[in-house]
Specification:
The chain is α/β, with parallel strands linked by helices. Helix content is 28%, strand content 23%.
Length: 560
């Protein structure tokens, strides 16, 4: 939904376009006319779906209903020639800001199925709507963040998981530290105790001991919506390969669902800056790149769900069954595995204890804010580590980058090496490793050992950012697909004859490009044996795998 009225002065036509008469006529053809009366609710808090509303006559307002510590608030008003809606129309999120008529009037309601048709057939209108939706979400992120409120400790891993989920989903929220006066006041107003934390305050409800899963369920963003539905293509993994597959699958007519255990973006979302991606000469953050890709997938009709952790995959007679951690079974005509790889951890005592409370596998605004004003360290010698160190230094943090090799340039691009060595905020430790972690509740210091000299030092450290290589995220497959000794999945010509058993003989064909040892199951991106571990390559693999899917299952048989 749109944001406070002052946003019009800042965002203007991007967020609040006034439609021309011919555009209103074309939009009205997709909707149903409705007479409205002053005070009437157009949609209410918690509605499981809502329509695109185009105003023909009269005035509507978006409101934030009263809650603990604040009264009802008018977020924005709209008049003739304007429309109400934002990205939630595409994601299917429950209504969290109701709309109410200020005066009598007339509106056109365009339901979700007709809205999808509009997006497919009216290119010019689609561009206007999508641009406005994105701009309004940006406004919400800045000015209406109290629609979702998190209460929890600064060093709470559970609280960090909730914040990370909302950041990945680009949802507006604010966080209150339970130890601050504002946090304590909010706890009192919401009748919360320390044993209830982390908690999430939503309009009309409170979640105690909240998790990303329970939050997604209450926002209407969980996979429950697709239970027992027919699906053409299930994409497991929301990194660049998975998003590429979702964009191309849905844009080419396949009923496509993307499932991710954390949130769209994968490892790419953890990259603070990507400077060698085609079309972005000034660079782009991984989070922004994958956020744009997610919106693109939604535009074409993909359904994106997280947290949705796959735990098994089983081929049936004419379907692929994917079971999720909560027991939900997803049936699809074909599947693409794009689960990527996980960053490895260091074999150091108390490592798990500090995960989310000082140990991070991503360097984004969220983690930088958690470490504000205190020294941090980055472990790793490849580009991801260099990009993270520069990003953190730009946030005025003192950064130590710790590399096991004696030459920082051994695995890192030269442009990054030059910048790191020239930055006075960055200290480079070569031939070094972290040997111990110290702190109570959250990370406070690390011990660094130089292997060349044998000397060990203690360094203050509020955040240890780990980028030391990755292992494929394939354990959930339980060896269902043929893979190499490291767990990367074999595809097409890399599959040896011993894995091409009776199913392939019955099909009388060889595996297609990107197809695994299981017919109609494909793999793309970092999870695939022989893949080039680059964002652009992963996107290309996801798109190319869809071409093979089409060859196997033909055109879409699903509309949902």
């Amino acid at each position: 939904m749109p944001a406070r009225q002052p946003g019009r002065r800042v965002w203007g036509e991007r967020a609040y376009p006034r439609l021309e008469e011919d555009q209103l006529v074309r939009l009205s053809e997709f909707g149903v006319s409705q007479e409205i009366s002053a005070g009437q609710f157009i949609f209410r808090l918690g509605d499981d779906k809502y329509d695109l509303v185009v105003i023909n006559k009269g005035q509507l307002e978006i409101i934030k209903e009263a809650g603990p510590g604040y009264p009802e608030e008018v977020i924005a008003t709209f008049g003739p020639g304007e429309f109400i809606g934002e990205l939630s129309i595409l994601t299917g999120q429950f209504v969290y800001l109701p709309a109410r008529a200020v005066t009598d009037g007339r509106i056109y309601r365009i339901p979700p199925d007709r809205f999808r048709l509009l997006m497919e057939t009216e290119t010019a209108l689609s561009d206007i709507l999508l641009t406005a939706f994105r701009a309004r979400r940006e406004i919400l992120m800045e000015s209406a963040s109290h629609t979702i409120e998190i209460i929890g400790g600064a060093s709470s891993a559970g609280c960090m998981a909730l914040r990370s989920y909302l950041e990945r989903m680009a949802l507006p929220y604010c966080w209150m530290d339970e130890a601050t006066p504002d946090g304590l006041l909010l706890m009192r107003l919401a009748s919360l105790t320390a044993s209830d934390l982390p908690a999430v305050l939503l309009p009309g409800r409170t979640l105690r001991n909240a998790t990303p899963g329970s939050l997604a369920m209450n926002l209407g963003l969980s996979h429950e919506k697709i239970k027992d539905q027919e699906i053409d293509l299930a994409v497991v993994g929301g990194g660049p390969a998975g998003l590429g597959a979702a964009v191309y699958g849905s844009s080419e007519g396949l009923g496509t669902v993307l499932l991710d255990a954390v949130g769209p973006g994968g490892q790419a979302a953890a990259s603070s800056r990507i400077e060698n991606y085609l079309g972005f000469p000034n660079g782009i953050s991984g989070a922004e790149l994958t956020r744009l890709a997610a919106v693109q997938a939604l535009k074409f009709g993909s359904h994106l769900y997280s947290p949705s952790r796959a735990v098994s995959l089983q081929p049936l007679a004419d379907r692929i069954k994917i079971t999720l951690s909560d027991g939900t079974e997803i049936l699809a005509r074909a599947a693409i595995i794009a689960t990527g790889a996980h960053y490895q951890s260091l074999p150091i005592a108390r490592w798990k204890y500090f995960e989310g409370a000082g140990i991070y596998y991503a360097a984004t605004e969220l983690e930088a804010r958690s470490c504000a004003g205190r020294p941090v360290a980055v472990v790793g010698g490849a580009n991801s580590a260099g990009q993270a160190a520069l990003f953190l230094a730009e946030k005025s943090l003192a950064v130590s980058i710790i590399v096991r090799r004696d030459n920082i340039g051994a695995r890192m691009s030269s442009y990054l090496v030059h910048r790191l060595l020239a930055d006075p905020r960055v200290t480079v430790h070569t031939s070094s490793e972290v040997t111990a972690l110290e702190g109570e509740g959250s990370l406070e210091a690390i011990r660094i050992r130089n292997s060349a000299t044998g000397l060990e030092s203690l360094a203050s450290c509020s955040g240890l950012f780990c980028f030391i290589g990755a292992t494929p995220a394939t354990a959930w497959l339980n060896e269902a697909c043929a893979a190499d000794k490291d767990g990367f999945i074999f595809t097409d010509v890399h599959i040896v004859d011993e894995y091409l058993g009776s199913p392939w003989k019955e099909l009388q064909r060889a595996p297609l490009p990107f197809e695994t040892s299981i017919p109609r199951v494909f793999a793309a991106g970092d999870v695939r044996h022989g893949s080039i571990k680059r964002v652009a390559a992963a996107v290309g693999e996801g798109a190319s795998a869809v071409s093979s899917v089409h060859r196997v299952i033909g055109v879409s048989g699903v509309a949902f």
